[in-house]
Every structure is written in structure tokens, then in C-alpha cells.
Design brief:
With 184 residues, the chain is mainly β. It is built from 2 helices and 12 strands; from the N terminus they run E-E-E-E-E-E-E-E-H-E-E-E-E-H. The longest helix has 8 residues. It is globular and about 45 Å long.
Length: 184
């Protein structure tokens, strides 16, 4: 049975081979323009900085150099049930210098489209065991965001040679460039 996480809750990952699924819906009274939310991964070292530019995995760089992280592709509308974007992670392949994997979602062209997370609902991140196809844990963002244009959904981090997931759910104003500035 899956664990329903609360903001700030941390749980040990029982498998190193899993999929991070992210989902969301947009409000009917949105801006009249499709939302394009983008899931991205930042693979960080012990100093909380990107191991290299190629350790930023997103719609234009679908695979990490070590093959441990694979983005399944950009979903440009978010329509339909279930996961809108997925990222497959195999920790057995991850660079030994990696200590943290941040999972963020940003809104493409948020300023031009006048969109923010106040217009997004039913957001979640879930971890699915790739060996059993069972959901291990899920974090539903029940916080009401207003003007934020990016959300750090969660992070996977190594502590004492054990990988854990932390439900973050923190919004900020900015986009991918702001996260790149933070982690470079």
C-alpha cells in the first residue's frame, strides 16, 4: 500500500529502480491558452550544485550521462488521467558523486501566457517501483499557490548510503533559468 506523504515528510526508498510520475490539472477558467508544465531533474553533488550541465535532465536533455535518469518526454497539454510526465530513475547506475536529485515543475512561457500555479490544481508526485509496477508513495500538493510559476515537488537524497525521498512542495517565482542559477 502506498504511503501518502505530507509536506516535509521523508521516507526511505525501498527500491533503487523507480519512476517519478508527476501530474496536474488546470482550472477551467484559465487564460485561454494551453498550459505546458515541464518536469525537470537536477542531479547534485554533495555541495548542492549540478555535477555537470548534462546532469540537468529536462525536455531538451532526456538522459543523464550515466544513464541513471531518463525523462520520457514533454507532455505539452497535461490532458488525461494519471501521470502527465514521468522520469525513470535507476540508482544502481547513478554517478557515485551524486547526493541529491531535485524534482521541479515549471510553466513554459509563464510570463507571456500570464500563467501561474494558482491556475493549477490536483498536483502530485508519486514514486512507482519499476520491478513490481506498484505505487510506493505519493505526495499531493494541497497548498494553494497564487503567483508562483515553479514548484519544487520533492527531492531524492542520499544519507548514510541510503536513498530517501522528501516531499517538498515549495513554490517560487521564476523558471528553469532560476533553478539553473541556483544549482550552478
Amino acid at each position: 500500500m502506498a504511503i501518502n506523504l505530507q509536506k516535509g515528510q521523508r521516507e526511505t526508498l525501498s527500491t533503487g529502480n523507480f519512476t517519478v510520475g508527476l501530474g496536474w490539472d488546470t482550472n477551467e477558467t484559465s487564460t485561454g491558452v494551453d498550459f505546458d508544465l515541464d518536469a525537470s531533474i537536477f542531479i547534485l553533488g554533495e555541495n548542492k550544485k549540478l555535477l555537470s550541465d548534462n546532469h540537468f535532465v529536462f525536455y531538451n536533455n532526456l538522459n543523464s550521462p550515466d544513464g541513471s535518469v531518463k525523462h520520457t518526454g514533454d507532455n505539452r497539454t497535461g490532458e488525461g488521467e494519471g501521470d502527465d510526465e514521468s522520469i525513470i530513475i535507476d540508482l544502481a547506475k547513478i554517478d557515485p558523486n551524486a547526493f541529491e536529485i531535485c524534482v521541479v515543475v515549471t510553466i513554459d512561457e509563464c510570463e507571456a501566457r500570464k500563467q501561474n500555479f494558482g491556475q493549477v490544481r490536483n498536483s502530485f508526485v508519486r514514486i512507482v517501483d519499476n520491478n513490481t509496477n506498484s505505487e510506493l508513495m505519493k505526495f499531493e500538493l494541497d497548498e494553494d499557490f497564487s503567483i508562483e510559476t515553479a514548484v519544487e515537488f520533492g527531492r531524492i537524497y542520499k544519507r548514510n548510503n541510503e536513498w530517501k525521498f522528501e516531499a517538498i512542495g515549495t513554490g517560487m517565482n521564476g523558471g528553469l533559468q532560476d533553478f539553473l542559477n541556483k544549482y550552478n
